[in-house]
Every structure is written in C-alpha cells, then in structure tokens.
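All the exercises in this workshop are built on plain-text protein records. Sequence and backbone structure share a record, each on its own labelled line. The question running through the whole workshop is how a given chain folds. The record below serves as our worked example for the rest of this section.
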Amino acid sequence: APPNPRMPATPTTAPLRLPRRLAILLAAGLLAAGGCRTPRGGASPENGPVAPSPQGPQNPAAPRPGDAAVTQARDLLDQGREDDALRVLARAIERNPTLTVAHLEMGDIYRERGDYNAAERSYDSAARLEPRNFDAQYLHGLTLHLLNRLDEAVRAYLRALAIRSEDQDANLNLAIAYLQLNEPNQAVGFAEQAARLNPDRGEAQANLGAVYSALGRHADAVRRYERAAELMTLNPQLLVNWAESLGRLDRYTEMVNTLERAIALKPSAPAHERLGFAHFRLRQFDLAKQHFRKAIDLDATHFPALNGLGVCRLNDYLVGGQADRQAIDDAMDHLRASLRINQNQPRIVELVQLYGRN
C-alpha cells in the first residue's frame, strides 16, 4: 500500500498530519471571537474545522461602561468614522491611561480592521490594567492566537477561563491552540467542555472530532463529524477530516464518497491525494493514479501525492513481472521528487534504495 504521509490541519476565532493534516484543517475556519461587543458589520465566523475567524462573538457581552469620550467614539463608529473614533480614544487614554474600556474599544477597531499587532497591544494594556476583566484576557488571547503566538495565547485563554470557566469560545479556542501545538491530550478536556456547553454548535463538534482524531479515537471522531454535518454548512475542511478518520477505520468506500463531496465543493491537492489513497486501498489502481495526478497538477510540491503516484507505478512494475522499465523509472522519478521536497521520509528512502538500482 502507498505510504500515508499526513498533511496538516487549521485555530477557531470562532478558529485543515496531527499530525499536521488535522492541525491545518482545524485552524482554517473556527476560532471563536466571543467576549466582545456586538460587531458593527454583523459578520460571523466562517464554518469550518480549525486559522481564526476574528469577526463577531457567538454570545455578545453586555455593553461596556465608559466615559463621555468612549460614548463619542462609539457614535463615530456607528457613522463609519473609524479614524476619528481612534483619535478620540487616543486622547481619552492620554488623559487617563487607566481607562480600560478605551483600550478595549481601540483593540476592537484594530482587530476588525485586521491589524492584529495593534489590537494585541491595546488588549494587552487592558489585561494588565484589569487582570480580572474577562473581555481583556480573552481578546488578548484571541489576537495572540491570530498572530500565531500560540504559547502566549494559551496562557491568556487560561487566564480568561480562570475568570469565566464556562465560556464556550474560550474553551473552544484553547482546545484549538493546544491542537495546533500538537498537544491533543491537553486539548481534549477543553474541546469536550466547549461541545458540552453548546451541543448544537457545529464548529465545536467538528473541532472535538479533530481532537479525537489526533488522539487516534477515530470512531469517536466520525460520530462528531457526523453531528457537525447536521449542524453546519458542509465545507471541504470538515469533509477531508471526516474522510481521514473513515480511512483509519478501513471504511474506504465511505471515505471515497466523502472526499468526492469535498472536491465538488472545492478541488484541492490534499483532497485528491486522499481520494487516490482510498481508491488504492480499494484496489482501484487506475482511479488512484488519476487522483494522484490531479493532486500534483494542483500542487506540484504536494509530496504525499508524489509518493502515491510513485508507489502506484512501483506496483505496476511489480505486478508486471518487473519487465516494465517505464513503470520503474516513473516510480523512482516521483519518489525522488518527493524526497527533494521532504527528506524526512524513511519509508520512501527505503523504497528508493531497494528498487532504485533495478
């Protein structure tokens, strides 16, 4: 059978191998942005299992009290005058550097603009001024997460949960951060808590599935992905993660069906490579080669697809009684190309050493 090199997974502001395959899929769409005021644009987190989606909270907090300058800044924001609002807030902070709410409002503006460095500085100031302010600690963690400063984000989320232990977004994002750090054992409790707090939230179910998959609990993962699919719009990341766990359970026909749905939504090299793998397992070798080639056409650097096609051509060579020189040459060309991209593949090195001299 062809090697099964893992591909990466993606945080949730609400944040596709965990090995890296799960990690990248996870982080691609589900960071939860809760704990802040209602977003002006009404945007909501993109559905999908794990990069952060920094728009709007699931459960908006109550309006923050503030002085007249903060009220003026909010009025300016309602008029779309963000730069003027920032100037008003800056003057308010200059007059009173301990005005936490002004730092939080500035952080919100910068975060919604996508200026996460500036937002992080504002939220950090608020968190230092009021260590027991949940919004300050959570939103500081969120922007650190969006900046991929994962260790710091974990510490900030933990501070937020020490204040409000049953906040779903903080539990969800902390689980994702741990998963991105390749620490699924640390992630699982928080992922389960997030799903328990709101069983009808699809991204919480999807991310719990990814955590279970990272722990090798693929039957549990499949059940969570099935539940997520009932609750949220299907997206390629969810489907590829789901298919991966189906494959680990030797449910290859279901894996094929799930990946075909993913590709219908958005073709990608990882989805075609996994589909090639599933067809190989079903001994549908021509279909396997077809999808490995499609993966390479989409991304010539996707080394798992190069491995898959190389192993298929090696299989052609062996099944043909080792008489097809073109097959063995093709096999070695693809496996060597894979090793040029990623040298840390002992099984591929072994195959090249074993058959490369023939």
The first helix runs from residue 20 to 27. The beta strands are 12-13, 31-32. The first strand starts at residue 12 and ends at 13. Residues 1-30, 34-49 have pLDDT under 50 and may be disordered.
